[in-house]
Design a protein that fits this description.
By secondary structure, the chain is α+β, with helices and mostly antiparallel strands. The chain has 8 helices and 8 strands; from the N terminus they run H-H-H-E-E-H-H-H-E-E-H-E-E-E-H-E. Among the domains are: 62 residues, Arc Repressor Mutant, subunit A; 75 residues, SH3 type barrels (Roll).
Amino acid sequence: MAISHSVQDYLKTIYKLQNGHGANSSVNTTLLSETMGVSAASVTSMFKKLAEMDLVRHTPYKGVALTDAGEKAALEVVRHHRLLERYLMDRLGYSWDEVDAEADRLEHVISEEFEDRIDKAMGYPTIDPHGDPIPTKDGNIHRIDTSRLSETKVGKQVRIVHVSDHDPEMLRYMEGLGLVPATRVEVRERAPFNGPLLVVVNAGEEHALGLEVARHIHVAESE
């Protein structure tokens, strides 16, 4: 079954939202409309189309969840995207705040052979530049349980697993503070009334970090 670029974009976005809000959770019209920057009417129309293609299960007034076929198609696009990000950054010198937009433009047009060659040339990478797992060729993906840095208790040492790539300016800010995947961070203090966190990066520099940024950094217990 041929899937259009528009359908691929929707499936990828539904997959990312669904997995960001708990396994098997539904993605509603409002959330998808705001995320993709399209009208609610366009989303509703696409929901019906995706349901007819058996790519989502649509529950009126609740939203959609990917079917097995929908998840498989979404993961193929996600694989293209994240492999391209890795290639663009490691081999072509793109910065990590540039690769998302460039990969968005390329992910629909590369062939399976080109995908395989990138994978082999890069030594079969398992994560993209932002720390997100790259699905395997057969559609498996290794997920790690994480929490947000904004939720980390004072005195806790954690390791950054991945960061949100939605805002290039925020990515540049994080990089300037050394807040990149695999970095170890300790929350030293938490200001009251939703004030900033005082964090120590790699047992060295201290930074006051706003909660807006901390919410986009996903961490796991330090090993």
